[in-house]
Specification:
This protein is of the alpha/beta class and 823 residues long. It has 4 domains: 220 residues, Rossmann fold (3-Layer(aba) Sandwich); 172 residues, Immunoglobulin-like; 320 residues, TIM Barrel, CATH 3.20.20.300; 47 residues, no CATH class. The protein is built from 22 helices and 30 strands. It has a 6-stranded mixed sheet with strand order 1-6-5-4-2-3, sandwiched between helices. It has a 6-stranded mixed sheet with strand order 19-20-24-25-27-30. Strands 11-10-15-16-18 form a 5-stranded mixed sheet. Bound molecules: beta-D-glucopyranose.
Amino acid sequence: MNQYEIDHLAVVRANTPESMVFLKSDGSFPLSHPGRLALYGAGARRTVKGGSGSGDVNSRHVVTIEEGLENAGFVLTTKPWLDAYDDVAAAHHRRFVADLKRRAAQAGIPAPEFGMGAVEAAPEYDLPLAGTGDAAVYVVSRESGEGNDRVAQRGDVLLTHSEIRDIQVLAAQFERFLLVLNVGGVVDLSPVSHVPNILLLSQLGASIGDAFADVLLGRSYPSGKLSTTWTAWEDYPSIGNFGDPDDTYYREGIYVGYRYFDSVGVAPLFPFGFGLGYTTFDVEVRAVSSDHSLVSVQAAVTNTGEHAGKEVVQVYVSAPNGRLDQPHQVLAGFAKTDEISAGSTERVTVTFDLADLASYDAAAVAMVLEAGEYVIRVGTSSRDTEVCAVVELSETATVRRVHQVLADPGFTDFTSPQYAAPRPAYNQVPRVLVTAADLRRADACEPVDLADALDHVSGLSDDELCHLVLGDYGDSAMKQSVIGQASQTLIGAAGQTTTAIPGLPSLILADGPAGLRLAPEVGEDADGRFALRPALGGLYAELREDDAPAQAGETAPRRPQRSYEQYTTALPIGTAIAQTWNLTLAEKLGDIVGAEMEHFGVHLWLAPAVNLHRSILCGRNFEYFSEDPLLSGQMAAAIARGVQAHPGRGVTIKHFACNNQEANRLHSCSHVSERAARELYLRSFEITIRTDQPHGLMTSYNLINGVHTSESSALLETLLRQEWGYKGLVMTDWVIDSMARTDQRYPRAIAAATIKAGNELFMPGCENDRQNLLAALHTGNAAPGGKAHSGEEQRGKEQRVSLTREELEKQAARIVRIVRRLR
Ligand code: BGC
């Protein structure tokens, strides 16, 4: 193992307990010593380190839970059970793969694309529970991935009959029983919610098994808090739809996650922000003060238990219900304590800007705060707070004038029935006054100066300009673009900018967010470098096995003259990082990525991913942080700080925006109101950008209200650059020909239309894309866009987009500017 791997794994192991959320505890844990233990469940040996797809990371080794416990000295009494379960799981997997191939053939879609990220439901089984010991642990595991969504069925969101049966038997049989959840998203725990000890272990990367053993033995302690509401499947709202291949309607508007549950009075099993530890805390608010629009809450946190621990102080605000309806409360700020020893107290201050809580007022086309009382609540979960102050705003304040950037979604958002119910008077708490003048913010930002970069591109030929705005595809005859491992320079990196312009270096782009994804083993022969093991492994590689010719950068039957390794560190998944609620730690994880980017020569990391958990069914939720935009945006900004502290390295926040499902992702349209978009789905991006300018941003595959995000100049020029002052590079998500279909209601995005709209880099690029650009440059004046409902019309659309040399130069100049900044 290389020194960087050893160092980075040590940081991850020491810190991942902060991601673990103790959902239920009766004080039976931690254990005092590593004795005899009965270990069961799918995740015991087949521990899942993270989700699949582009977010998968190739570490040298993953310490499973079984291995971690044995490393720590436990004697496992259930080896025969684990062996027998292995056989059940292996047979089940063979059937699953065969079935996927059969269904892909029926649908006429290449199996790797059809099956990518498909959830393999946990199998039913019947094996005797013969283990003995001081305690028992049952590990439920689930895996999902890019390309497909989860399902509300047994073995995925719902527990299997076998899991429920065994968990219940073990809970009754053992005095000390721990249910462990090695999952990337919500599982409906209602059938086992009476179990006294439940740990959401999550998916924590390469050292997950060791970190679990540390916690089980009290060498460390869990201090995570839920970043998304966990409850019974049927309690999640179904106001809007989810997973439709064509049209998904976000009719629930702003009532997502706890904003919904708290507003309609449904008590979830485990609320947003909730998490126990090995100890207990008391939070006492000491003072609330204001400085113009900044409100600060100072609290004293006392450890009232017997173990060390960390607590998260959460501040929520209930805005007045005026002309605009408001959810019961929204998270306004938070702070995690350092370690507090038993009996000690730490003071923390949470500061937030009231202006950041502004709502979109469609009538005024502005972000406003309505006059009235803003109730400040402080606590340790969304359902465990106390009112500590009231901020009074005497008149309605226009915080910013904005633009309407989305078309009408065609429906009116859901409004909570509790809207306009009278609020209690909070006379006993301090009052703070804020004036409208304190809240006003500048309306627009200065444009970036492109003069130098424009000089550079003005002498380039049309052909060269087209290359500049496309990802590099090496061999210029390559007609088909390649899925997430298109770099010819760094094998397994997702792509790179062009190498076709003399004197202009290429930027290397590699995936995340759970670390840096590269091909782990690379060979070299007279023709160049190639992957000995592919960067995209797992199910995707299995489904590719008997597929057409190997893609560039993938395993090929070549004999290396020389070989080398590119192992990187698998970090906790995005949701687990958010569960730490620790921005300093998030920055530290960013620093690990930044260091590995330097080591391997990656310039832009294709992460973090700040889409929200709109539905628990989204197959990529594990990559995303939370159902809350503040937590998501601040986590991403912290990670960006860690990465970008390394000169020449940048993050790429993705997928902008409303990419909240995987179903038919290149062709699906999210219908959402401007208000819900601005307060939730665009907001996490806005927070990241305003807090810490990320060098890159990736648009999403989907359309919003009929327009591809990558083809929307309203989103890219007006909102992103003009309103938010974004100064980095905008690239598309990887528009891969073999993933696109011509029989869909909406077409896929095309190069000429994206470049025209202000998305300057079309990825990963291929010769067909360049031909599309050249055609647009030479065909005249028809407008881009327009819905295409068939392959024929898709082609028609490509012909209709016109591009001027000036438009192309501007986008090319933007790329030159970023290349110069990073190289
Ligand atoms: C994913 C992106 C990823 C890209 C490059 C796409 O399929 O949606 O998140 O960064 O591939 O691998």
